[in-house]
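User: quick one, sequence for these tokens?
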């Protein structure tokens, strides 16, 4: 198993990450290195994205590339790294090898698949806002735009939303979402679609854990404004801009959560 790491200048990190996720949709590890941010991908030799492709993706932001061979017990260490996400006694997202914790909603997601083990701050913030909506009694049709592993769509279905449409442009995410829905015993309408070129289906509740450029594009091409939208994948300093982009559609900021450098918004019709 190889770890291939690209160090990029902090100022360019966000753009570099968006480009890297195109090449490594199953996710990249992010390590804070002071003035730099290191993004790493893992895989057996021959299955990693090609180095020239990666270098071209991050362009001028690139500072250094390193590769390292991982020790034989890497698999076990990797399992140690992926601990369950526990949101009180209300919701747990755990990898298949961790025992059940007995929360009201408990999802099993294999972190070897697409983005969305629940451990990333952006996913966690979405889940917290989704739980707050569930507590208020919001239910009905829901769309998860950029579903990754399907973690948000599956949580929504388990909390009682339905029908739930989960969309991603990445075929591996579509496959992972279908598989994860089966493992977790929920019915989802999983579709492949690109929000840059297609109109996303409308629903009263929309979850959109996307990066800033995609959220702006989604806001510009919003089909029918939802009654409530959870927008995540934003850096703290980007939140005002994203809130303003959706305000044009009559959606107002109702709550904002922050975790480290990440923020998520709950926007609702006034
Ligand atoms: C930050 S991940 C979120 C995954 C999951 N919803 C979660 O919260 O953990 C963003 C997802 O958006 C998908 N995506 C990126 N560009 C897209 C596009 N143009 N159209 C649809 N999905 C896209 C990626 O493949 C990725 O799965």
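Assistant:
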């Amino acid at each position: 198993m190889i770890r291939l790491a690209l160090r990029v200048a902090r100022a360019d990190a966000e753009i570099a990450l968006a480009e890297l996720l195109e090449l490594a949709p199953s996710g990249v590890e992010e390590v804070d290195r002071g003035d730099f941010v290191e993004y790493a991908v893992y895989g057996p030799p021959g299955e990693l994205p090609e180095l020239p492709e990666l270098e071209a993706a991050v362009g001028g932001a690139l500072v250094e590339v390193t590769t390292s061979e991982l020790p034989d017990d890497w698999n076990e260490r990797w399992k140690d790294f992926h601990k369950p996400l526990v949101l009180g006694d209300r919701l747990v997202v755990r990898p298949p090898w961790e025992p059940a914790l007995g929360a009201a909603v408990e999802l099993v997601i294999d972190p070897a698949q697409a983005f969305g083990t629940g451990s990333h701050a952006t996913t966690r913030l979405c889940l917290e806002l989704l739980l707050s909506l569930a507590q208020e009694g919001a239910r009905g049709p829901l769309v998860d735009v950029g579903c990754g592993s399907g973690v948000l769509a599956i949580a929504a279905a388990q909390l009682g939303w339905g029908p739930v449409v989960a969309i991603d442009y990445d075929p591996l995410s579509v496959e992972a979402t279908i598989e994860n829905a089966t493992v977790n015993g929920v019915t989802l309408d999983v579709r492949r679609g690109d929000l840059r070129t297609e109109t996303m289906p409308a629903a009263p509740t929309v979850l959109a854990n996307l990066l800033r450029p995609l959220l702006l594009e989604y806001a510009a091409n919003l089909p029918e404004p939802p009654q409530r939208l959870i927008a995540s994948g934003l850096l703290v300093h980007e939140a005002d801009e994203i809130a303003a982009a959706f305000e044009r559609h009559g959606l107002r900021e109702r709550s904002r959560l922050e975790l480290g450098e990440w923020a998520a918004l709950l926007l609702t019709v006034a």
